[in-house]
Design goal:
With about 450 residues, this protein is an alpha+beta fold. It is built from 15 helices and 18 strands. The two termini are about 40 Å apart.
Length: about 450
Amino acid sequence: MKKAIIIGSGVGGLATALRLKAQGLDVLVFENNSYPGGKLSSFTLGKYRFDAGPSLLTMPHYIDELFELFDEKPQDYFNYRRKDISCKYFWDDNTVLNAYSNKKKFINEINNVLKVDKRIVSTYLEKAKKKYDLTKSIFLEKSLHKIETFLSTDLIKGVFNLFFFQINKTLNSVNEEELKEPHLVQLFNRFATYNGSSPYKTPGMMTLVQHLEQEFGTFVSEKGMINITESLFDLAIRNGIKFEFNQLVNEILLENNKAVGVKVNNSIYKSDLVVSNMDVVPTYKKLLKTSYQPKKVLNQERSSSALIFYWGIKKTFKNLELHNILFSNNYKKEFDSIFDLGNICDDPTVYINITSKDVVTDAPNGCENWFVMINSPNDKGQKWDEIIKNVRKNIINKINRILNTDIENFIEFEEIFSPKTIESNTQSYLGSLYGSSSNDTMAA
């Protein structure tokens, strides 16, 4: 039986291990932490439970598919439901908008709240859908490392529609031209952050991210995001995949330019296939030191990171949803600060995720668990203690102003993650959440 070694048990590592096992390989996973999941882990503060990493669930059918590979019913282990409101948006001028999952309701809401003609939004979303349809088979269903992908009719269709992808415009310029209304432009600019980029730099191709969320919807796992990790890990164990925790891989072993195993501490583990689920930079710089180093890949601008405040709140807020955004008054300044100055501006956009809205056991009765996240530069040696102090004061002022409250009176527990924490916990180079950014034309 062929052997495969996976480095890292993040969701990508778990999924890859399961797919290789389903193809008949003997799979061994090495994980530096004492738990699986990578960024998608969980912790508690008192009686409050928090998802430590990703908070947004989209396209859960890809998770279902992993169970189906082993003829198991995903519903026996992992259940979710679609949210009626994907996200609730707040601005300082008292504008509030619900982003409904239902496209018709969403367009009506934009028309009612922002007075934007329904046809403008419909046309925009139709174009985003076309971009997605023209590229999904190439990027989601085929490998970019295989020559047949580049000889496919799908790629040829894509090439003939190159102008349609709006690659030579930024996401912001596309949104300003097509949507015009400032609140709506800012709302749709936000989707650049889904891969850690700036809407003022990433190409107009990225309008398709809005289509993904609108068309497929956002979901909530009945047991929290951590259930993704737990259910996939249990599936792997049931099917004979082996895990070694608290084991840091030191080197990927090469023979004739082919990976043949790994070195862990002083032990050698041979295999027919090695998959690294680590960030590409530490994979090359730490595990493939003697290998060719692809400078273009390794020197790409890194994505943004995050500053996250986990708060146990002794109060419930009926005007908040699972996902909430309190927008900055100057979005361009926010992204210039992150990507050009390596800092966080005085008025950052605030994301508040409250899983106890749906998973009631995540907080005590009458309380809520707040995951409060700010887009941040990656770690370049900034004085994070000083930045955290300033940001905390600024976001509390913003929350108080927009929600008409005094939030600090209700903070019972607090934990803070900075880019340094994220890098330490997940081996993400410089604490970048998404690897490289998509802040140039070639990213499209």
